[in-house]
Design brief:
Layout lengths: L6 H6 L19 H7 L8 H19 L9 E4 L3 E4 L27 H15 L7 H10 L8 H10 L6 H12 L7 E10 L15 E7 L5 E9 L6 H23 L23 H15 L4 E9 L4 E7 L3 E7 L9 E5 L6 H8 L22 E6 L5 E5 L12 H15 L3 H15 L6 E10 L4
Antiparallel strand pairs: 1-2, 3-12, 4-5, 5-6, 6-7, 7-10, 8-9, 8-11, 11-12
Helix pairs in contact: 2-4, 3-7, 4-5, 4-6, 6-7, 8-9, 11-12
């Protein structure tokens, strides 16, 4: 490729372009994307758990080469040698490496914004279906495909960009990694709370059809919690979306009644459902479950449809979510951080099945169709997502319709959840029910454009049975 410079520049010799050749003292490992996608030397699902080793290498590289020395291609991994960071130090005009300006204290190795952005790009590039173009592309993919990416990667990347990291990357990310790896060795107990509202701009004056969301939760004798949110979708406000959501709920109830009875007990306990049947949700066989729900919606209405997110939490702390459409699941967990920092972190458990998501799979230039569903209950279940994970005492599991997870301009919803949870916790109110109510109130404060339903499951320590 040749570039033609203006005549006044070329004639005066105002531009001097050096020829730079970089020689490495050791062989370079494959880039992180090549290691994960092509060589499979690092398992995609194990990436987040392996990151503390990368942070130590990053800190060492920044200490030697100085801040501002990383690009996305700097992050490398080898199956035998592990992590490698290829840092690019600054050079003087004579071609020699510019000496580091070492400062007193722990701040000398703190990454610059360029370093942070490079790390985020490298991480997303390693797990995405297509190469990551730039930081904007990385953040969009983190938001849209969070449930397809390793759990917690969105929280890691957001902390990389937003935390001060004055004492280095490893120290700055350590509290989050401790939280991500937390387990419940003695099991868990659960309680669920729900809030729902129509939305002032959504209301048409008919209480029977205005709110097309429905949700429910049940803990049966087996100790398994099943909960779900269904978000009805209709084009002309005729209430068919509500019909679809209720039909899906009733079918899920029937399925889980049979499964609970198969464990040796009849269902009991309090329900949060609007239907006469007091049970709900979860999925051990997500494909079968989604097919059943889709068929139930098809029988109930020819025009209505529904987005859905269902979760199961077992007494041993294992959990799963299955989703279709744009209903969301988030995990909010306490983080042991220094005083003054927000003591919670949140990460998304579900991807979005929208026109925008489909475009983003192909191109970073995706635009529009952010609310147009391409997969839904009622004849459009081409895509569904299933994610297994673990919960621990102190966790909050949020299931929400898209109205309750309304994004704010230039603000990640995970940060909203962490800050809101911290505020409610500090207020002395019961955190889980207060969070459900606060999210519905927030939806109205943001304009009240849609039905908003939030179901929050509080995870506690195991109780004697």
């Amino acid at each position: 490729m040749s570039v033609e410079l203006p005549a006044d520049v070329t004639e005066s010799g105002a531009v001097a372009l050096p020829e730079i050749r970089v020689e490495w003292s050791q062989a370079l490992a494959p880039t992180l994307r090549d290691s994960v996608v092509d060589a499979h030397s690092l398992d995609r699902e194990e990436l987040v758990a392996a990151l503390p080793g990368l942070w130590r290498a990053v800190d060492a590289a920044l200490d030697l080469a100085g801040p501002g020395s990383l690009v996305a291609e700097s992050v490398r991994h080898d199956a035998y040698e592990g992590w490698q960071v290829a840092a690019l130090p600054r050079y003087d005009l004579d071609g020699r490496i510019r000496p580091r300006e070492r400062r007193e204290g722990a701040q000398h190795g703190a990454p610059q914004l360029r370093d942070r952005r490079a790390l985020v790009r490298a991480l997303v590039d390693a797990v995405a279906e297509r190469p990551c173009l730039d930081l904007r592309d990385a953040l969009q993919m983190l938001d849209v495909f969070a449930g397809n990416f390793p759990p917690g990667l969105d929280a890691v990347c957001r902390r990389l960009l937003g935390h001060e990291l004055r004492h280095g990357v490893a120290a700055g990310l350590a509290p989050l990694h401790e939280a991500l790896d937390r387990r419940a060795p003695d099991g868990v107990s659960t309680l669920c709370y729900r809030e729902s509202a129509v939305g002032s701009r959504k209301a048409k004056g008919d209480p029977a059809t205005d709110n097309e969301d429905t949700a429910g939760a049940l803990t049966g004798p087996s100790g398994v919690l099943r909960c779900a949110v269904f978000d009805g979708v209709t084009g002309d406000g005729d209430g068919s979306g509500g019909t679809a959501a209720r039909a899906a709920l009733e079918q899920a109830v029937r399925r889980w009644r049979l499964e609970e009875e198969a464990t040796g007990g009849a269902l009991s306990g309090d329900s949060l459902t609007d239907s006469p049947v007091d049970a709900l949700a979860g999925a051990d066989s997500p494909a079968e479950l989604i097919a059943e729900l889709d068929a139930a919606v098809g029988r109930a209405t020819a025009v209505g449809s529904a987005a859905a997110v269902l979760a199961t939490v077992r007494p041993d702390g294992t959990a799963s979510v299955v989703s279709v459409g744009d209903a969301e699941a988030w995990l909010i967990r306490p983080v042991r951080v220094p005083a003054g920092e927000i003591p919670y972190a949140a990460w998304k458990l579900t991807p979005a099945h929208t026109g925008f998501a489909e475009r983003l799979r192909i191109s970073a230039d995706a635009e529009g169709e952010e609310s147009q569903l391409v997969s839904f209950l009622g004849g459009g279940t081409a895509r569904w997502a299933h994610r297994t994970f673990r919960v621990a005492p102190g966790d909050l599991l949020l299931l929400a319709s898209d109205g309750a997870s309304e994004p704010e301009r230039d603000r990640w919803f995970g940060a909203v959840l962490a800050e809101l949870t911290a505020q409610l916790d500090a207020s002395g109110r019961p955190t889980a029910p207060a969070l459900a109510a606060a999210l519905v109130q927030r939806a109205e404060a943001l304009g009240g454009w849609d039905n908003a339903t939030a179901l929050v499951c509080a995870v506690g320590e195991a109780k004697d049975r």
